[in-house]
Structures
1.
Amino acid sequence: MGMERKRKVSLLDVVDKSKITKINSGGFSSSVASGSIIGGGPGINSWTGRPYSQRYYEILVKRRDLPVWHQKEEFLQVFKSNQTVILVGETGSGKTTQIPQFVLEAIDIKTTPNKRKKMMVACTQPRRVAAMSVSRRVAEEMDVTIGEEVGYSIRFEDCSSARTVLKYLTDGMLLREAMTDPLLERYKVIILDEAHERTLATDVLFGLLKQVLTNRPDLKLVVMSATLEAEKFQSYFDAPLMKVPGRLHPVEIFYTEEPESDYLDAAIRTVVQIHTRETPGDVLVFLTGEEEIEDACRKITKKVAKMGDKVGPVKVVPLYSSLSPAMQQKIFEPAPPPVKESGPAGRKIVVSTNIAETSLTIDGIVYVVDPGFAKQKVYNPRVRVESLLVSPISKASAHQRSGRAGRTQPGKCFRLYTEKSFRNDLQPQTYPEMLRSNLANTVLTLKKMGINDLVHFDFMDAPAPETLMRALEALNYLGAIDDDGNLTKLGEIMSEFPLDPQMSKMLVVSPEFNCSNEILSISAMLSVPNCFVRPREAQKAADEAKARFGHIDGDHLTLLNVYHAYKQNNEDPLWCYENFINQRVLKAADNVRQQLVRIMARFNLRLCSTDFNSRDYYINIRKAMVAGYFMQVAHLERTGHYLTVKDNQVVHLHPSNCLDHKPEWVIYNEDVQTNSNYIRTVTYICGEWIIDIAPHYYDLTNFPLCEAKRVLEKLYKKWKKESRNC
Ligand SMILES: Nc1ncnc2c1ncn2[C@@H]1O[C@H](COP(=O)(O)OP(=O)(O)O)[C@@H](O)[C@H]1O
Ligand SMILES: [Mg+2]
């Protein structure tokens, strides 16, 4: 393999038997097979009143074989006698799909829909893909239609109904629900899944639920996690810990002898080598994001195709968060059969982000390729920059990744880094998101829930004081909290939008600029993935198509043009195809827009537009953007580069921008850090507007010395003179 075999690690060794609650290795009650979970009679599904389908029984056989089934009785016992239970188990042991069903069985939910209120079971997922995929699977397992008894809820998409008893939802959505229903009264049991991920929302839910549990003795909490830091959860919640030993087969680990300079290239090469030299078994490759994954899929397919029938056929499937549900489901399809009978075996190759690390289990993986990177959020409170960075993973992540190779049989993991690097460079655990995020949104949410004393909030890992201070400061500049830290009326409305506070502010004030319709469209377009398609074989045509939408004043307005054109062309899929626009993304944007309109209506925020022929049409839109994003402004220095205002960070316009010149002042939507610092989605604004719209932020008495300050000083002088003349 061109890689020296270094050592053999049996992952079985990792499970510390002494700490495992005694396993009831005996049989389990087989009541489910007869369909009598809640008294529906043999063979009758009591949720629907219909006989179970053939498919139900087929899946049931597989389900009963999952490790959690062997501890079902024990789990139910611990569950019944405790308010909180911590459950840890290897990925693939059946936690996410089975435990919520066990819980449903245990709490005896009324089967008539109108009695189901306050009876629901919630199961949180950090990732939207997982919430969607798992709920579909569980609906299938329970032989019900998705959206009825089993549903899911992710930001901007609710697939549940009055009949729903089990809802998979992102942790962020449960947090939003807690804003209007602080005691989460519609739930009888809350399952916080993938707790080891330590996402921002899950961490906040930890602290929140601890309070809710004392106020609601009838509520139960199950915290589920992969085998990481379990004892930390146990002591934080002061609850019993139950372990489900997985059935992990030994995994051989290989390291490269030398560091790889291009991990993408190395990953593709390794996959092709596995396919040509290794025994049958599917491959899982970890990469960092959509573009890279699509690129790798194409290259692998092409390289294998070139080899002709010397090697077996491959099915290369991508997996990342913005993939459509139909594409996501492909990861569960079997490997392709050999082209000829007795020909070389086919192989499935899944190329995934770290979603496949613990969130989704793919059976049949025997080989894992781990380049050692993942996109991670990082936040620097000093310069207030939050960005997604491709960063080295932790040892714990590397361990999880290699474990994916040993789910169904002994496997191999190829780490595309040296053993020395693994030992010396990788940190033991990934830092919780709480410690590396901008907390403005979290603080706003907590304030809305009436939690004012953030310093004494029971965080599992408290954020840095500087980060909290930055969040409060930003909310204060936005007018969401007053100088005493109390939520203002504006802040209350802002908190109702499932958006970052700057965008919420822009929306809430947009009627004052007579352009809420347009700001809604822009916000919707900013809330969905990139809508421009750029196929490798038609890059020039795609760039030309994009240029046709280009607006000279900037990318936000270009997005608005795309949205308008899509609507003017009646959302026609053919039009999208011909113009290199991703129709699914536009559809999603339209859906987001409708939901935002509903929130606007709830607060009587006017829907209005400036006359399209007026010269103020675009000016008003750009001014409304300044009202929200005045903290994300960059100034063009005489040296030709941009400096972010106040923080003085050197940034470049992202190459994707559509401006035909470099304006003196720009407003931007996000920071992107690769080999240099970029600002992406930028629009040209005027210096006069920022001092007019956000004078409190552009107060020069606390402004660092820089070119922008001198320019602003002149503008202020001019402004004063003009107002005297009026
Ligand atoms: N959509 C699906 N299609 C087929 N199998 C699935 C699907 N979702 C989950 N499974 C299977 O269900 C099993 C249990 O998975 P899960 O409950 O997610 O485990 P855990 O949460 O412990 O990691 C795995 O073998 C997985 O492959
Ligand atoms: Mg799971």
2.
Amino acid sequence: MFAPSTRKLLCSTQLRRLQSILVIAEHNNEVLSPATQNTLSAAKKIGGEISVLVAGTKCGPASESISKANGISKVLVAESDVFKGFTAETLTALILAAQKQFNFTHIVAPATAFGKAILPRVAAKLDVSPITDIIGVNDANTFIRTIYAGNAVLTLEATDPIKVITVRGTAFPADPLEGGSAAIEKAPEGDYKTDLVEFVSQELTKSDRPALTSAKNIVAGGRGLKSGDNFKLLYDLADKLNAAVGASRAAVDAGFVPNDLQIGQTGKIVAPNLYIAVGISGAIQHLAGMKDSKTIVAINKDPEAPIFQVSDIGLVADLFKAVPELTNKL
Ligand SMILES: Cc1cc2nc3c(=O)[nH]c(=O)nc-3n(C[C@H](O)[C@H](O)[C@H](O)COP(=O)(O)OP(=O)(O)OC[C@H]3O[C@@H](n4cnc5c(N)ncnc54)[C@H](O)[C@@H]3O)c2cc1C
């Protein structure tokens, strides 16, 4: 007979063995996205055998790099021109084929534009509810996510037999991708071509600045900047801080900056060490995307602006005077 505590331990170990997780890697064939490393950490928290799916055109380098992560049993690789542009329609068919062969209990992807396009389709095809944008894992069936634009935290117990999950990158540490040597195998082969969509081309913004979602420092501007040209003030400040530049939705909607800079509920979720909000009022939809930043600095001429309620340092000032002064002093 086992002592009760030992028996409990044995059960949870056995349970972890029964779980098998498929992580969908986001990459550009060469390099994994940082969000994939965060997603891998979340998968490890769920516990169980972890496989990673890397699908692309010539994705050898990305597969190699994830195979080095500790605690992965295999990397399934699918290389074909069909996966050009990483379209959700083709990747969904591949994921379903992998699911049919391996019977995963969890399918997990980053809650980025990539994962958000694919996993709801996969969930619909498997007739289960997607569990989106989790920020915590209690156990293999219980996950934490925010609701009401980040104003309430929900603990969700999933009863579906297959859990299809997207992971908020900022809520989990990046897996260091070292200490392991997982087997690299071919993913199930099949005809994944679809008439639903055709990849034509892609134009990516080229920038020497850090990417918004992984930057340690961010300077973000809002409608208070008044024009796109005035964002130069923020770029100058960002250069001094090696920071990424972001924006509120109002600034994006007004055409000051492109929409890949948008931070918030319907934009990117960020959690840098330093977030400087300039001419941003602090609407809840904006806060939903940045309130987990470690130090928040707000510059706003209105002392009643809600951004001051979440900021660690607040400067009530005209941004057109304060920002150049700050940049010059750095
Ligand atoms: C469904 C939904 C989703 C949304 N998603 C998002 C989202 O993802 N991200 C997002 O940001 N918003 C989002 N919004 C919009 C959000 O509600 C706000 O409208 C938006 O965030 C406001 O942007 P802002 O703070 O730049 O503009 P405003 O609210 O107009 O604030 C401008 C601020 O600049 C200050 N200011 C003006 N001039 C100066 C100056 N010279 N010096 C200093 N300060 C100055 C003003 O005092 C004011 O506080 C969403 C809304 C909805 C309904």
